[in-house]
Amino acid sequence: MWQYTLLQIFIALMPIGALQFWLNHPARARYTPAFMAAASGVSMLLGMFHSNGLERFDLRMVPFLIGSLYGGIPGASVMTVLYVASHLGQIGDVFISVMLGVFLLGLVPFLFSLISTFQHAGLRGKLTLSMKLAAVAVLIPFIESWDFLPRGESILRISVSGIFVLVIVEACVACSVYLIESGLGRMRLESELRRVQAERDAETKRLRQFAELSPLAVLFVNEEDQVTYLNKLALEWLPPANRQEAAGAPYPEVFKPLGDEALAGAVGRVLRGEDQLYHMLRLGGRMYYVVVSEWKRPLDGRAEGAVLLAQDVTELQRLRDELGKMERLSLVGQMAASITHEIRNPMAVIRGFIQLLNERSQKDQQSYFHIILQELDRANGIINDFLSLAQNRIVEKSDCDLHELLEDLMPLIWADANMRGQSVELQLCERVDSLELNIKEIKQLVLNLSRNGMEAMNDKGVLRIETLDFPDSVELRVTDNGTGIPPEKLEHLFEPFYTTKTNGTGLGLALCLSIVERHRGKIRVESKLGEGTMFAVTFCKPGRDCW
Length: 547
Fold this sequence. Notes:
By secondary structure, the chain is of the alpha+beta class. It is about 60% helix and about 15% strand. The chain has four domains: about 1-190, no CATH class; about 215-310, PAS domain (Beta-Lactamase, 2-Layer Sandwich), CATH 3.30.450.20; about 325-390; about 400-540, Heat Shock Protein 90. The protein contains 17 helices and twelve strands. The strands form three sheets. It has a five-stranded antiparallel β-sheet with strand order 2-1-5-4-3, sandwiched between helices. A five-stranded mixed β-sheet has the order 7-9-10-12-11, with helices on one face. A two-stranded antiparallel ribbon has the order 6-8. Strand 11 (about 520-530) and strand 12 form a beta hairpin. The longest helix has about 60 residues, at about 155-215. The protein starts with a helix and ends in a 7-residue tail after the last strand. The model is unreliable at about 50-55 and about 145-150 (pLDDT under 50).
């Protein structure tokens, strides 16, 4: 008897074991109601098969209730049909037929009315509803087993048998609901975990993509002083041989090729507890504004490393320098406007009297007056440079052939070079388009650049003046083979009052820059120590936009 009872319990709980394997694949979760209905139907048929003709009760009501409750209305309909079909062989028995009628007209409508409530209830509510249904439904298997109870038994013995049936059915139903809910809860938890993991991975990819596309150099360092991530811009700081080994290496080794120990020190100080530090980094001729900040965990706010963000501020610094240059030019303009007349008038009077004294003086003293007149002319020239530099006027331009302008100037330049013992080479391209130029200012530009080149060379120096024709522009180059200009001085060449000459005023190149800008051109300098310097002036052709 007991072995058959255990077999019935095993068959009744078989859908629960099958469900655990079914839920190993989360993609199947949406088909769980259909699976529970099918597995419970198989369990119910097996229970009927193993109880048919045997003198014991069966537990097919357990899979019937489980399959109906978890299979929904469609599942409950299929389970009802199977349950009725399993009793077709007993329709001749009036008592069984009456019980089937009670089942179809009483239990089934009651079951269908509770399915929706059951599926939306929590674990406690599902246990309560399922056990109530089991208590109502257990009457049917008990009555079906009535014919198999020994005749002549006492009411007490029959009652004990009924309680036994009720306890087993209730226990099987409660165990089934609990295990199913546990399995479904685990499956939902795993699905939620996978969803959160997928969202985290997607967010990580978005952040990584943002870091790669950002105009900032980004670098992360963990608590163990190891670099965990560098974006593309940060990798460009390093030599090619070091880029593959950068991630995972100690940050002092990664920063070593940069040649800036202060940057590594700033990262170390942040890792030791400082909140945020700022640093200016010069690298490869570029200027970077660097922020080193503590990197904290989002949940508990605990520090787990440092993050370095660097912005290329080279252009911003260049604009600031240009603004400073414009402010200095404005200052020069104000000075020139205020003192020009005050100086020129006394100088004109002085020059007149010096000339008069020169005419009346002895011959051996005239050389002194000649020196005074030269210095007065030099002072007047400086005042003229002030005026040319300060005036932000609109110059009158006309169509001009640059080659003709240079050929007109060459006798003057050759004469100046001969006095110094130097030579001049003129290399003109085959043809050059006409340009809109102010002839007077361009002549002044060429003379200034040529004399600067001559002053930078010794008495055997060679000055080369050449022109190049491009589709949108014409370039004028003035090259000397002098001593060259140190790199640290190149960026200051065009600033007013900045000079590399002992007796220079620092206004010549500033005046050249002013002339070039009034002609919508650009001027650049290329110089190597011991080899010489080249000044290249680019003019846009009429109707073209070179920049």
